[in-house]
Amino acid sequence: MAELLFHVGKLRKNLDTVQAFAKARNLDLLLVTKVIQSRPDLLTLINHSALSRIADLHAVNLARLPQAVTERVHLRPKVSNALETARHCDRVFLSDTRVAEALGQARESLSLPALRVSVMVEAGDLRDGVPWDDLPTVVKHLASLKGIAVEGLGANLGCLSGIIPTSESMERCAAGLRRVRKLSGVQLPGLSVGGTVYWENLRQGFPTEFTEFRLGEAAFFGFNTSKGVPIMELDEGVFTLDLEVLEVWKKTVGEIAPGEVGLNAFGQRMHSTLTGLRQRAVLDGGENLAPMSALRPMDAKSFLVGQTHEYTVLDCTDAAVPAVGGRLSFQAGYEAVARSFLSPFLQLRVIEQETI
Fold first, then answer.
1. Cβ neighbours around 182 below 10 Å, total
2. What are the backbone dihedrals phi and psi of residue 156, each rounded to the nearest 5 degrees, phi first?
């Protein structure tokens, strides 16, 4: 069985760094922990003050958070589970009035204080967000709802379209906030921005209207996917994935004539750039567990060749010959870890103390 190694000490150091980063810029830090499903046992184990405010996509994850979490933020509330969100969450991000209306009614039915709402704006990523021209009307309507307290705006970049923030786009968001305040008559305190794609921009400076930084990838992976670069002050090695070796053989890899090859299990046409006698290892666990795009061999002399749904193939011609039954380690990126946490065919092992 594959093993996902969770290096808790490295995560704590990353949390120290992101917390200090936000504090130095007078920004509230909102940690998004959906990649580990916001598991209460892991959050308790991590035991860090940065985890006092948690955001997740799923109300069921937020409902089971440990008592040490003082603010539970739902990033994707839905009409279908409005009652669950209203019961368990302190704040939500939303972009549709019908969702807000359902949440307000649910909150009122529970006789709970008004649910705090940050309204997502369309900042360029073309995922969730109210267009700027519609925002004043939307904010004014939400402010009139019982059970709802509008407390600010939210902007997201990078996740869908890969849009990277610039000083110009950040100033447009700030100007938009000021305009919405004026036209709606609602005194919105500030703007929450996410995700990790904003790291370098916030380092260099940002409008005073920015009041909160939402992130997950920076803390858990020390990487900025949208820009394709590691974050220099953070550790990329919080997670490693160990896959068992099923076989090791030297196999002849030759050029295949175009008429002799079709498409593989993923509808792709494979092509080998290195031909001849190559030593290959077949590993237990494939695309269903962790896509190779999110895996990097710890042994730099080996490289991934391809995957099926359940197998991964590694070229280890120039590396030490792995033992069948042994394990090979990979640095695991976001998608690999997210899928691993959903797999029943994987064991999670927590590493509290690193060995030298």
1. 10
2. -135, 135
Tokens at 205, concatenated: 């400076």
pLDDT digits (tens, 9 = 90+) for 75-129: 999 999 999 999 999 999 999 999 999 999 999 999 999 999 999 999 999 999 9
Pairing of strands 2-7, 239-253: antiparallel
Domain 8-230 bears CATH identifier 3.20.20.140: no
Largest CA distance in the chain: 72
At residue 16's C-alpha, the angle toward residues 20 and 291, to 5°, is 115
Closest C-alpha to 142, from 78, 171, 185: 185
Residue 10 has pLDDT above 90, yes or no: yes
How many whole angstroms from its chain centre is CA 154? Answer: 17
- The long-range contacts involving 310-313, CB below 8 angstroms and separated by at least 24 positions, are 310/284, 310/285, 310/286, 311/246, 311/282, 311/283, 311/284, 311/285, 311/286, 312/243, 312/282, 312/283, 312/285, 312/286, 313/280, 313/281, 313/282, 313/283
Using CA atoms, how far residue 332 sits from 4, 50, 280, 308, in Å, is 9, 23, 21, 18
Sequence-distant (6+) residues with CB within 8 A of 34 are 55, 56, 57, 58, 61, 75, 216, 338
Domain boundaries, the chain: 8-230, 239-351
Contact at 8 Å (CB) between 71 and 52? yes
Residue 257 scores a pLDDT above 80? no
What span, in angstroms and rounded, lies between the C-alpha atoms of 178 and 133?
A: 13
What's the rounded Cα separation, in Å, for the pair 164 and 54? Answer: 24
Beta bridge mates, 55: 32, 73
Tell me which residue has tokens 């994707």: 76
Token digits for 47? 């035991």
Element (H, E) at 154: strand 148-156
Average pLDDT, the chain: 95
**Lowest mean per-residue pLDDT among 15-29, 121-135, 248-262, 303-317:** 248-262
Say if CB 75 and CB 57 are below 8 A apart: yes
How far, in whole angstroms, is CA 150 from its chain's centroid? 25
pLDDT band at 258 (very low <50, low <70, confident <90, very high): low
Contact 193, 155 (CB under 8 A): yes
For 21, the 3-state DSSP assignment is: helix
What size, in residues, is the chain? 356
